[in-house]
Specification:
Number of helices: 4
Strand content: 15-25%
Distance between the termini: 25 Å
């Protein structure tokens, strides 16, 4: 990705720390949120109101498969039992896995 290109990312887990991670990435120049994923419909609806152009999903596997050509990176902010499988799937699809230490 060139310096002037946009990095399109998907957020997996958007409550609590996930919301903070997503907001931190959106402060980076040339970064665009294209997909939101959370198992809690209430969290998903609230985030979608703020980012209506982002597609929404309740299953990260569906999101990654459907959006594979539209996502350059993911931020995975989920509990440990979900973090590893979601991260591995994204990496196997050659997506960047964003690790934020805030």
């Amino acid at each position: 990705i060139g310096a002037n290109d946009r990095i399109r990312f998907g957020a997996i887990g958007i409550n609590g720390m996930g919301w903070a991670d997503t907001q931190a990435l959106l402060k980076v120049p040339n970064v665009e949120l294209v997909a939101l994923c959370d198992v809690d419909q209430k969290n998903l609806e609230a985030a979608h109101k703020l980012y209506p152009t982002a597609k929404t999903y309740t299953d990260y596997r569906v999101m990654l498969k459907e959006m594979q050509s539209e996502i350059d990176a993911v931020v995975v902010s989920t509990p440990d039992h979900t973090h590893a499988p979601a991260s591995l799937m994204a990496m196997e699809m050659n997506m960047l896995h964003v690790l934020l230490l805030i």
